[in-house]
Amino acid sequence: MKRSYRGLDHTPTRDTIEEDELETLEARADELGVDSIGYTVVDREDILEDDVTDRSVLYQHAIVFSCPMDPEAVGEAPGYDTLETVNETYLDTGVVANKLADFLKERGFGAQADPGLGGKTNFPTLADRAGIGEYGRHGMIMTSENGITQRLGAVYTNIENLPTDSGERDDWVWEFCQQCGKCIRDCPADAIRVEPERTEGDNLSFYDRDACSEYFGANNGCAVCMSACPFNRVGYEALERNISSRSSDARETVSQTPRDDSGDASMRQVADLSSDLRTTTDREEIAAILEDLGRKPDNWAEFGTAFVASDVWGYSEVHIARGDDPEPHAPVVTLVR
Q1: pLDDT exceeds cutoff 50 at 17
Q2: Is the model's pLDDT at 309 over the cut of 90?
Q3: N or C, which end of the chain is more exposed by having fewer CB within 10 Å?
Q4: Same domain for 139 and 181?
Q5: Quick one: average pLDDT of 91-117?
Q6: Where is the domain boundary, 181, 211, 233?
Q7: Full-prediction pTM beyond 0.85?
Q8: Angle between the N-to-C axes of helices 19-31 and 80-106, in degrees from 0 to 180, rounded to the nearest 10
């Protein structure tokens, strides 16, 4: 960890970067194994409580990056292979942060490295603001390059003309997560909140840090939420393609969904039927249950029957448990077309 702070006595002589220098910086990051990189401004609220001092974060601008994890090892969580990839990737973020900071200091800029483990700021908030990826309900960032399987790091700098425009957002990611909730159901520590709590500024609290940290430390780095997440099991691009292709089917199916006397979809009926779905992955049995829901599947989406069962149960379990008003659609249409 001490390596992250070497060279803090460096005195910067420049605060504006040339376009070709920025391109060289990004090429260097790519050589170091960085999959995504973005830029943002650090607000005081982004600095973690234990580090809120005048000198904890030296510069207001941030270069945020992600380093990939081994998705197969993550899929085996919790276990030694998962712990190994967690540790290796955290180490990668430290190496990258230091090398990028050195790159900038050699060119006269101020730079402070901050590795993924024990970072001084809320990295997911910075990454979200920098346009690297989108939040999931587990509080981690999903990127188009790696889905959920990465760790974040940062370099704080005095460079004032970094391109901080995050571009277009993938709003479908959060919409998908709202209907999924698998990380909440599978979390062995029951640490992930059904709804995030706002803290300060742009920051949200998605999980109980104490509960998560205790289980994480005692169970090989845990990562069950990462393993369970469809963005690891199916993949970012596959999910995006499926969501795009099914949007018209979802609109068509709304009119076929069971409704109660008020005209709203009967989510209680969905809950009753989904208890059967939870215990079977048999294609014919699920087809019969779906017909009871008013939807006869002519063909199946690529995710398979296990995802259908998980999606229907997850929707009813989370939404009905918290007393939501009935939604005008059955969640199964997100997986069957």
Answers
A1: yes
A2: no
A3: N
A4: yes
A5: 97
A6: 233
A7: no
A8: 150
If asked whether residues 264 and 274 sit together in one domain, one would say: yes
Q: Which of the listed residues 233, 262, 282 is the one where a domain comes to its end?
A: 233
Residues contacting 333, CB < 8 A, separation 6+: 246, 249, 250, 253, 254, 257, 295
Task: Assess whether 85 and 218 both reside in one domain.
Answer: yes
4 & 90 share domain: yes
Largest interatomic CA distance in the chain = 72
**Count of domains for the chain:** 2
User: Lowest-confidence range among 8-12, 79-83, 104-108, 241-245?
Assistant: 241-245
Residue among 271, 297, 295, 273 nearest 283 (CA) = 297
Amino acid at 224: V
Cα–Cα distance measured from residue 264 to residue 261, given in angstroms and rounded to the nearest whole number: 7
Residue position matching structure tokens 């997850």: 314
Per residue in 191-201, pLDDT tens? 999 988 888 76
Indicate whether 153 and 7 sit together in one domain: yes
pLDDT digits (tens, 9 = 90+) for 242-296: 776 655 444 444 344 444 444 333 344 444 444 444 444 555 666 665 565 555 5
| Rounded CA separation 205/187 (Å) | 16
Nearest to 189, CA basis, from 231, 226, 224: 224
